[in-house]
Amino acid sequence: MTRSLVIKVTAGAEASERTNQAFTVAAAAVASGVAVSLWLTGEAAWFAVPGKAAEFPALPHATPVSDLLQVVLSGGRVTLCTQCAARRDLTEADLIEGVRIAGAPAFVEEVTREGAQALVY
Q1: Residues 6+ positions from 33 with CB-CB distance below 8 Å
Q2: How far apart are CA 49 and CA 35, in angstroms?
Q3: CB atoms within 10 A of CB 55
Q4: CA 101/CA 49 separation, integer angstroms
Q5: Which H/E stretch holds residue 7?
Q6: Tell me: the pLDDT tens digits for 10-56?
């Protein structure tokens, strides 16, 4: 059985430690060869927009979110929640290359696959 990790990030700069932890776990899993799907929801939706991750406040002893996002994009999947995108007037044209928009049915499909582990931050 192939193991996979689905990580949903629900916060942004208002919860900087929690947000950075989610990206750190996702990037570490990608670097370890784990199949990773990172979902951006709520205020984390803005990380799907070019340049927004670079604006995230730096945390002491933590890798910048912009660097972690690049690791995830290089070897995992990044998805922006459909409703979260719509509430922010974001379309595929507004997003970083490689980020897709999908909704709850796709999320449920991923988290219920055999071997999937879901984490929510």
Answers
A1: none
A2: 23
A3: 13
A4: 12
A5: strand 4-9
A6: 999 999 999 999 999 999 999 999 999 999 999 999 999 999 999 99
